[in-house]
Amino acid sequence: MTTDKSLECLTQLYRSFDLRPNEPLCILPAGKLADAHHPRHNPAQTCIIMGICRQEELASLVMLLAQVYPENHSVKVVSYFGDSVTDLRNVPLGDLVKRAQISEGASLALCIPPLANENSFEEFQEIIAHLRAPNGCPWDREQTHLSLRTSLLEETYETLEAIDRGDVSAMREEFGDLLLQIVLNAQIAAEAGEFRMEEVIAGISRKIIRRHPHVFSEVEVTGVQNVLLNWEKLKQQERVDNGTPEKGLLDSVPIVLPSLTQSQELQSRAARVGFDWPSIEPVWEKVSEELDEVRRAKTPDEIEKELGDLLFAVVNLVRWYKVDAESALRGTNQKFRRRFKHIEKSARNTGRELHTMTLDEMDEYWNEAKGFE
């Protein structure tokens, strides 16, 4: 189709879909979405997808759009031959493949009405920018990167807790709270001329593509271990390119990480380049060895040192079992809370104070709590 014909067809589609001149609009050729894994437009804007020529192409598009839009989202569909537009229908997205058949020589165009503004990342950025504006919120306007540090940490742990519980509703909420921290910090940076959200997204996009050449280019890497090894080689090359070749393999593990997480990450990084036991048997032996050294330790300093070595060895054992040490211990902590709370509740129900109970009495309630799980 020539440019003039395309413009004429687009004009016809615009009229057929009864779009308003002041309405934000995204126009996409179907061919641009052929290899997409996620819709590439703002769902809070009307979107026209043109040039759908095959039924299988329509089916793929519907699967793509279903990642963002609900099944009952009404989509306007037209068939057109050249610049002649016919057969306007409103069809729920979930019924589109069944009810929109493509005739020979014809093409389909879809007009997808927008979702509410609250579904838009750009609109969310506007909300945060408004909070920071002169007519915004006094509290938000006072925040800095440093003042938000504690909030970022708290929201991260609340997100982890929701994941550990498998609470999907809580996960959705906590991911939103975590996103708020990221966007708010990016807005503060933009106001200070440090960086913009677009630079944050561009930077991580480039990094992901650069570090996955086996996905986005012709490099062939087999197996997870080789992927991780190649990842480390790419990171080392990045350090050289950035003028920091002296930075070590473990230097990028944050010191502020919880100690269990830090231990496991240090061991995992070292294992990527082959610094690891060949099997799990020597790991068990190391745990036993460190336990014996704790028993033989005499002074408080020696005991602390040997207990640290024992914990480090246990974390290594946890890593070999492909379990996250922090999550495992967090789960045990939560279990301890539940069981001890049962002891407290049982004591209150019998009119007893905990400090007046014997260990055997408390242990009885502890075992009772175990039976409830």
For the record, the CATH architecture of the largest domain stands as: 2-Layer Sandwich
Continuous helix count: 15
- CATH topology of the largest domain, by name, is Methyltransferase, Cobalt-precorrin-4 Transmethylase, Domain 2
CATH level 1 name of the largest domain: Alpha Beta
- Overall 3D shape: extended
Strand order of the largest sheet: 1-2-5-3-4
Proportion in helices: 55-70%
The parts where pLDDT drops under 50 for at least 5 residues are: none
Beta-strand percentage range? 5-15%
Counted up, domains total: 5
Distance between the termini: 67 Å
- The radius of gyration is 29 Å
CATH superfamily of the largest domain: Tetrapyrrole methylase, C-terminal domain
Order of helices and strands: HEEHEEHEHHHHHHHHHHHH
How many strands appear in the DSSP assignment? 5
Mean pLDDT: 88
Secondary-structure-derived class = alpha+beta
- Outline the biggest β-sheet: 5 strands, mixed
Describe this structure in words.
The chain has 5 domains: 114 residues, Methyltransferase, Cobalt-precorrin-4 Transmethylase, Domain 2 (2-Layer Sandwich), CATH 3.30.950; 90 residues, Helix Hairpins, CATH 1.10.287; 30 residues; 65 residues, Helix Hairpins (Orthogonal Bundle); 45 residues. It contains 15 helices and 5 strands. Strand 3 and strand 4 form a beta hairpin. The longest helix has 25 residues. It is extended. The mean pLDDT is 88.
Give a short summary of the structure.
With 373 residues, this protein is of the alpha+beta class.
SSE inventory with pairings:
Layout: H1 3-16, E1 25-29, E2 46-52, H2 55-65, E3 74-81, E4 84-92, H3 96-99, E5 107-112, H4 121-132, H5 138-142, H6 149-165, H7 168-191, H8 197-211, H9 213-216, H10 224-241, H11 259-272, H12 281-296, H13 300-320, H14 325-349, H15 359-371
Parallel strand pairs: 1-2
Antiparallel strand pairs: 2-5, 3-4, 3-5
Helix pairs in contact: 4-7, 6-7, 11-13, 12-13, 14-15
